[in-house]
Amino acid sequence: MTEQAGRKPKAQLDAEFSDLYRTHLRDVYSYAYYRVGDHHDAEDLTEQTFLQAYRHFERAQRESAGRPLRPWLIRIAHNLAANLYRDRSRKPATPIDETTTLAALHTTEQLVEGRDELSRVLEGVRQLPDDRREALIMRFALGMDNREIARALGRSEGATKVLIHRAIKQLEERVGYRGEGLADAQERAAEARAGSEPAAGRSHE
What's the pLDDT tens digit per position in 162-174? Predict the structure, then answer.
């Protein structure tokens, strides 16, 4: 059976998706963990995210016009998280075709170890309204910029900037953190990611 015109061979798509998985597993799992606060649920959410991403991967590549796909992945996770407790029965029955890209999920708890300080900061985030909580998780746990967050939330950059500003102000009022403290936490999280991020092509142990 020949490939449809303009379609990539499945082997090429699988290889590219494996690269996407290795590159963004940490961010998707970190988002899921800070969003739901439980390692088991975060693993389920991460798996669901990549399963759904795989089904729409080729279209996302075309529509992204070369832009990074991290916001797209986080948007998928964001939508799935909103349904997590309402529809807990949605679990994948089979793996992604013959690929093995999700084989490392049993070790994902290690991805947020050693970030206790950031966890304490983000504990207050869980008290915020949904949109503000989502924006701050993306900013401080994942280090996403306003443009990426805007894409993930389906908002304009201007609206996203206002949302983050208001969220930080509300968080300061609730838990007594100053904006510089949040910025410091973001910087330390970025350093932790840079220091422990696997090199391209290296599998998670």
Answer: 999 999 888 887 7
